[in-house]
Amino acid sequence: MTEQAGPRPINPTLKMGLEFGPVLAFFVAYLWLKDRVFTIGGTEYEGFILVTAGFVPVLLASMAALWWLTGHLSKMQVVTAVLVVVFGGLTVWLNDDRFFKMKPTLIYLLFGGALAIGLMRGESWLQSVLDGAMPLTHEGWMILTRRMMYFFFGLAVLNEIIWRSMETQTWVYFKTFGLTAAIFVFFATQSNLFKEHSSEDDKAE
Questions:
Q1: Which one has a higher pLDDT value, 146 or 136?
Q2: CB under 8 Å to 31, separation ≥6 — which residues?
Q3: What is the average pLDDT across 129-154?
Q4: Per-residue pLDDT tens for 176-188?
Q5: Three-class SS of residue 46?
Q6: For this UniProt entry, which segments traverse the membrane (predicted)?
Q7: Suppose 91 and one of 19, 81, 99, 148 were both cysteines; which one would form an S-S bond, judging by CB atoms 3.0 to 4.6 Å apart?
């Protein structure tokens, strides 16, 4: 297979819809079915289980469309898709919602762990993913990677606390809006880092 030099540009609204649409669809479907119980093959399934079963193929179809349109999927997207299939499948197969609720924890532990390994080698693996979006010096990338590592580990702990101590509906709100908002807030608070370690300033000099 020929490796693409970079993702092909597509309409930003369409791209956002493909990336966030499945999560929003999961949220809406959960609110619709959360209080219902379905009997399939003699086994009772709560609405959350059926919504999870529907979320897996919707996410895969969305990512397939994104790959077809852009010719590119990030490593983070691929890892997320694999974990969704594994933990979503276990949730439905074993009729146990705990597996799907643990998925974000494992995702953020994997991402944080990967960044930690890169840092121990004196490298910023985050740079290979985001280099095109944020021109930073090597020092800037190392600082951002270290902060992102702690951020991912913090999200993993927070997800564990919420799903283990609160109701399913609270966790769904947290997963749909809380995690996404946290990422936006994190990058918004890094403005000083982007200014102080911008590689564009070095080029200008």
A1: 146
A2: none
A3: 87
A4: 999 889 999 999 9
A5: strand
A6: 16-33, 45-70, 76-94, 106-121, 141-158, 170-189
A7: 99
Phi, psi of 70 (to 5 degrees): -105, -20
pLDDT digits (tens, 9 = 90+) for 102-116: 999 999 999 999 999
Torsion of CA 105, 111, 112, 116, to 10 degrees: 150
Q: Which residues contact 197 (CB under 8 A, 6 or more apart)?
A: 136, 137, 139, 140, 141, 143
- Are residues 101 and 191 both part of a single domain? yes
Same domain? 38 vs 124: no
Q: Per-residue pLDDT tens for 11-37?
A: 888 888 888 899 999 999 999 999 899
Give the end of a domain, one of 50, 76, 96: 96
Number of domains comprising the chain: 2
Domain holding 199, by residue range, is 97-205
* Contact status, residue 101 vs residue 171, Cβ threshold 8 Å: yes
